[in-house]
Amino acid sequence: MTLQTTLQQIYDLPLSNAIRENVNAFPLLESLHVLAITLVFGTILIVDLRLVGYASHRRSTNRLITELLPFTWVAFGLAIISGGLLFASNAMAYAANTEFRLKLLMIAAAGINMAIFHVSTQRTIDQWDEDATPPFAARAAGVLSLLLWTAVIFLGRWIGFTLDVLF
Fold first, then answer.
1. Alpha-carbon span 52 to 35, nearest angstrom
2. Is 116 exposed, middle or buried (0-12, 13-18, 19+ CB in 10 A)?
């Protein structure tokens, strides 16, 4: 089975067709997707700003991570579901869209950055958690995360202006 065949099968799903045919479905899904990404970015922004040394509140980095991570994951799950449904409504066009593919690449890079942080720098968090200036590795992870998630948002917005609509 080829990628084109798989994309066509996704496009032909009854759910995909329902999203295309219902005048409210796509705008509703897009709004949910934007709200979810806003929450993802907002919670990540709070932690990343703490990682780069902007401690505007009295919470430690570890406490921020512990308190905000559940909200981030729920919002990310909602973004994946709503984004997946948006994709299904026009799978072939999205798959061919450069900005969409770059957005997925940036999300993957952000995930890798997060994973590296969690398996390396976060393991020593008890040594630097209360410091005003976290170690270089933590600051680098925070800056990279901010850049990657900002790119995700910009690319996501550009998709709407560069997508070849195949309805």
1. 25
2. middle
Q: pTM of whole model > 0.70? A: yes
pLDDT digit string, tens, across residues 118-162: 999 999 998 888 777 899 999 999 999 999 999 999 999 999 899
| Contact predicate 48/146, CB 8 Å | yes
For the residues of 22-84, what is the DSSP string, one character each? Answer: -TTHHHHHHHHHHHHHHHHHHHHHHHHHHHTT---SS--HHHHHHHHHHHHHHHHHHHHHHHH
**Rounded distance, CA 93 to CA 130, Å?**
48
| Domain definitions of the chain by residue range | 3-162
pLDDT tens for 28-74 read 999 999 999 999 999 999 999 999 988 666 778 888 899 999 999 99
What are 117's two structure tokens?
A: 């942080």
Query: Do 61 and 47 contact (CB within 8 A), yes or no?
Result: yes
Write out the two tokens for 97: 């869209």
